[in-house]
Write a structure and sequence with these properties.
alpha/beta, binds alpha-D-tagatopyranose, single chain, 12 strands, 6-stranded parallel sheet, about 40% helix, 2 domains, about 20% strand, 11 helices
Length: about 325
Amino acid sequence: MRLHRSMTILAAALATTGLAACGGGDADSGGDGADGTQAEGGSSGTPQVAFIQGVIGDNFYISMECGVRAAAEEMGAEVSVQGPQRWDPALQQPIVTSVSANEPDAILIAPNDVTALQRPLEDAAENSEVVLVDTTVEDPSFAVSEIASDNVGGGAAAFEAIQELAPDGGKVLVIDNQPGISTSDDRVQGFEEAVAQDDSFEYVGVEYAQNQPARAASIVTSALQRDPDLVAIFATNIFSAEGAATGIEQAGVSGEVQVVGFDAGPAQVEALEDGTVQAIIAQQPYEIGYQGVEQALMALEGEETEAQIQTGFTIVTADTLDSEEGQAALYASEC
Ligand code: T6T
């Protein structure tokens, strides 16, 4: 149920975060129930926030969960966390349906697919404030806020890193999760636009590993058989990067073929240290989760929310890994 009530503690907590409400949000972000009634939250009166991850066991979403939990504790909300076992819209949809049946005050979700999750989330938004964290859907107008990295910019930054690592140019490959995911589609787009501007590079295309490191590894070994002169690979997320590093090691080309990966989980850090990956692009998942709760609670209070919030990223290399900034950018394994 949506709330629209006086929560002095919450309001005070929001005021101290210093995040100004500035425009955006849906017209309905005032927080009345779909039927126009003003509804109370959980039986305790404490706002109930359900966080649905893109997939469980992914350090990006674990770090996001830490931000969600920290914000909820500070602002006096209760949190439940769930997610599909694999990155698969068919697994995430029933989770949305069952979470939504309980009508939590707010749902924070990273939808698995831009199309498949559209309808279930529109339905969920009838009874809960929905905040899209990380990924989005085709028409996010039902959401009170969307919070994500600059993914197009991140893809372009990955190519810039490759330009520095392979200044003579050559063949480059992208390994992605699967099409239809807003974040990684944007990363691929940013990369493709950037590579098209530099004649010294030849883009051999994008291959999909379906979030399976083993598939990413075999994509790398086959790509090297086809194109032994491949100079660099951009892997668009944790599992693509993890598999790319394995493939590079199996092919015995560590340091010869440059790998730039998105995300900064423990496996990516190990790959940087081993020299199988040369640069990683760390997002700010904790911040995304924290701000997600903040926006949800603002919507519940009837305050204006920010329609879109873009968070930053940090490029980490073996040289910067031990710096304060490098260490601060790494993802958590637990909160
Ligand atoms: O890269 C992140 C996230 O931004 C993306 O949407 C899905 O993959 C990750 O969770 C990393 O595995």
